[in-house]
């Protein structure tokens, strides 16, 4: 990610901080910490990105 994208991400989390965090926490985070936080907040979403609808249904049925 470039600096502009990181700052856009930072602004997103400043406007709507994750539970347990403050705007000040987000402002004081290093770029690497911010990117790590974003990754861990969305890591479960990546599980289904490459699956079609039938695979997702099968995943939950078994």
What does this structure look like?
The protein has 62 residues and is mainly α. The chain contains 4 helices and no strands. The longest helix has 13 residues.
Question: Which spans have pLDDT < 50 for at least 5 consecutive residues?
Answer: none
Terminal residue distance: 37 Å
* Largest beta-sheet characterization: none
Helix percent band: 55-70%
Strand content: under 5%
* Overall form: globular
Number of helices: 4
Short description:
With 62 residues, the chain is mostly helical. It contains four helices and no strands.
Per-chain topology:
Layout: H1 3-15, H2 23-28, H3 31-42, H4 53-61
Structural features:
62 residues; mainly alpha; 65% helix; 0% strand
């Amino acid at each position: 990610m470039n600096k502009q994208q990181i700052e856009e991400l930072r602004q997103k989390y400043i406007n709507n901080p994750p539970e347990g965090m403050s705007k000040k926490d987000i402002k004081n985070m290093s770029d690497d910490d911010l990117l790590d936080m974003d990754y861990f907040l969305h890591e479960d979403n990546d599980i289904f990105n490459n699956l079609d609808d039938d695979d997702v249904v099968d995943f939950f049925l078994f």
